[in-house]
């Protein structure tokens, strides 16, 4: 059983509390901190939490606090982590870990040096579909990974500080790209070094300073490509989709707008909350069965608390949060310089010196296989490359019946 | 915290144990019973269960047993329930409750008279999609329910006793129809009386005595129609789909083959379990993220244990299991008699004497509204019925631009 | 090149004219008849048709008329066909052929005796998806057909006469069921005799005399089942879906609401026609690329005119229209009698005396194969039936690693 | 009626002939040229073409040739076009127009100066879904276009010359990217100038010199972004998807792998051609109803021949082919230089000097509107920006019931 302290009484704090108290959980939130007292009281009431406070340090230091969950705006993450380090409390921090890699590395090292558990609350790397996809990839079901694209777009976040570039540290890249980058990184392999980033970003619609739309490519040392597509200008709800291409297969997941749940309503009945970021409450709607679960919160906290109890590193640690921040830093640099920017990773803990594998498929002793295809008229074509000369030839098996 | 005893060490027992011990659950299986000792030992080992036995009564009576979960073949349900009644242990029974309404009513009454909690483990009425659909319907999002179709088809069950009509008590109707009937009944309203049933059933493919394919219509007192489509001959995996039509909307859910998770594999990687009833391990596959959750086991046990702790009736009780059995009895009778057969419900606890509502939509003082449609050429047509004469007319608004 | 006369200037006449003049067609509509002169003039102008008239016989007899296309309400089909017989003009009649089998048989025989070509305009048996499905079934891709379900539901037709039971001859069964019945009949085999029908029908919502919702089962001599689901009360647009189960496979087609074309719009742009029977113009919409083509009109007229030119019977002839009417007659009878009603086919031209095949799959010399399944824990189970004793057994291959 | 000469007897030539002779077409192929006589003879036989030859000039100059359709490898396009110019025959050229912009501009100008009709056979800009999407966009249904992504990936082309970088002029970018670029360009607006391109390309799998996988971003003068994703390494069939984001909506189309047609087969029946680039013939398959139509060939030739007859420019002209080539040239340059490369368009015929529009949405006299969202607990949040100070604030409407 874990006794939890939540820092922050907003949107994400509520999602976390729903997950922590969900189903037949043995874990309980014992302390909640919020900046405004009325928020703290309302939150404590809603989730039957015995203690609330408007002092962050009091919350962290509270005797009932074993594990601290940080659900605060980005610019306060470091301060909160340092309080946990000071009071030697295990700490789980919402995404992104820092506003940049420098902040993230300081938090990571502070925890490591103090022997404090640091879990990175990257929920989208814990969705049921993600976990099963990752297992399939590890089992080799789709071969060597060539490309992993993750997309998160919606009509914009729900709190003022997200839109303030100082407090948030960035726009859609930092808010949404952190998910996409870590998803692709998992699929490609966490020990494969991200090398360089090319990113386009623009403020296309909203009256803000940060980017509201961005697309980035992350090149890994083994030749694989990670891609992120993020936007605060998407219309139609929240679009959460991943696509992975491997030499032997493909994975497509859709975690929100098309999950096998479709509803049409004329709107004459009572309205209400449809799902996160839904844009309409009539016509064809696409609800999600159990958002807390589908968005990964349940499996995420299970891994975190199990990891604490078993004394092991969680699937997503502060170090992972740091690598993500380093990639984001390169993305922001690239968006300005219009160049491929190197990923700066002074503290790299994975493999080094990989090269793109080139294992061609053999057709016979003299030829590499390129492909074969059955044509509409029944002819079969086989495309080969002569090993010696490099010449490309085709063999036709005509369907003469 | 609940201390659980599982009766039965097979397929469904494992699904239950996975759910009971899942995530950060505070509940634990303390005792397991299986007919064969080797099964009991393997099960106890796999789930770290301290006690196992090959005596059903010993399991039920065990001091560590607070709640009994029956995961046994249909023909042993009654015996097991009666042991729970004898030893005053709360009992949760897998579906279908009985092989027929007579058995089910005896179990229901025995529990009620002894004050023993009787929960009906109807998992498909607890899937996240189902629960959210049900809430939408209760909120009026799709108006008055006209028709609720539930479909469960797959290539057949995984244990010998299912295929033996004596032990199972029936074929696909009893095995799968029990889900579909209760799903439709929930959508239409549990207090609406099922009146009569028309059912077609046949043994189209398998070398068995029971039906391997059936379709049934269940008429409810308020004019709504429940439909079930069940089969052990379906090819392509397990097809779990519900469709509901209301006067103001539509709900479609797909709980298995199309949930937003798609994978193509050439099969060159390592194979393995894809998902329940999957028929192939190469080509396009449609895995399910977290089967235990998606099939409703998690929410089901949450409701059951919460209900026990709160001293309330669970969402699905033995009485519900009895009503389902009564509908199934009528379906089997109809399949033989080829007639609409009345549902025999000597113990009916819902509303009586309902009639089909006939609330027409008014267009103006003199006309009922039938419909309007925009045609491809831009014309608008409105179809009306004169209140007095009953004559049907159309008004055209030509698009003459 | 065909010179065409269209009888009827309404909704379906326009769809036909769009198809006839579509793409690079060599066929032309030369004559149009409509009851009201203004309709005839507008139609002639819209499609550049040289001749129009308000006399049906004048249209049929017109020297430029080679082929007559009947696009009239149901109660005038017979009169129109008889005019074509009188003037020896090839005739293509919209669906349903008659209001009942008696009318349909009279039309069929009148054409046959006069040597007049009679084509049945059953467009949904000509959609590209249908044609390809049918070919796959004929190639054996899904084995022996066990069940073929066709569903057409929408919020109701667009002209007054549909809602008048005298003129239409029926409600949703006649209007939509005629499609569904013929689709299933094609998949099961046109030479397989439909034997009996069970049908539920009700007027659940609309202020009309005819049924606005119905479900029917059609039993064929070889044990296959056709199912139709039709409604004028569906909310959400037009739902056109077919599902076929065979011993070796499954086919699912969706011809309207989910064809790989999805659009979200806030509605701030200009509105307009979305697609047939669409119910909203904002939120998530599901347009169809080329309705004329997707609904089968293009392939239908290609087959009809080619058949006329080649002197062969078209894929859908008046005789097919007659069989459909006979099944509908039985459906209406069943809806009233609540019994399975025999299909009355005094003129049956297909196979007679079929029986349900019972070809079991052999496992080894002593056993029939029932099924095998890989369980989540890696165990493999095989279910068999002993040929001699009939006993059902299971073989387990435990995954003990 | 058009009398057509096809140059080239391969895969694409057959698709063209199928479309040209399809349905009730009034157009006919009168002459076919192929390099090998046996190919020419077989092609002429298959399509009942009266004349065949192995001399390209003879084919073009043939008296029965009115319109020449070029279905040849990329490196022969210019030679073939010049023959048409010489003999003053209308010419329709397959995609891409040239191997680079220089070739394409020469062909464009040669046709224009000689008054010869030059149609660019960009079939994917003629699919029914594309045409309807384009109309919706022109009607303003999704507002100002922000991003248009087009994806074409499959396991590689079917003829040897594609894989030879000399003959093809490039790899997947030239082969597939030409489609994607022109699709996005149509959605964004053909008169909007493409300004610069960033492209990643690699040879990840195949033993070839050209790229087998590439991703590119095309920046347009008004700030819109076109994106292409192309690959010859995709596993699972042919993936053809477009996605468009506008300020007021979204369009998603899927033209191949998910079009509402799904089939499962155990493979025990007869096999055969499933669809272009299909990778398996068992398990879950996703056929396409009528490929010729769904891939746009039908509407494409309709537009081309109508344009010739009406003396107007077709929707896709040689000039469009030239712009596409110019963008591809920049993409190849960028893939090498790793820089955003300017699109070189010495002959630009659209708008000049556009700027990104910045029309913010007003909330009230003092505030710009950023967004509002309904939270799960019923609270409503509105995010605004103060016009004067630029400060971002939020207004909360708590759900205190």
Automatic annotation (TrEMBL), chains A, B, C, D:
Signal sequence interval, chain numbering: none
Gene3D superfamilies in the record: Dihydrodipicolinate Reductase, domain 2 (3.30.360.10), NAD(P)-binding Rossmann-like Domain (3.40.50.720)
This protein's record includes keyword Oxidoreductase: yes
Transmembrane spans: none
Organism: Arcicella aurantiaca
Domain GFO/IDH/MocA-like oxidoreductase stretches: 135-251
InterPro entries documented for this protein: Gfo/Idh/MocA-like_OxRdtase_N, Gfo/Idh/MocA_oxidrdct_glycsds, GFO_IDH_MocA-like_dom, NAD(P)-bd_dom_sf
GO terms of molecular function: nucleotide binding; oxidoreductase activity
Name of this protein: Putative dehydrogenase
UniProtKB keywords: Oxidoreductase
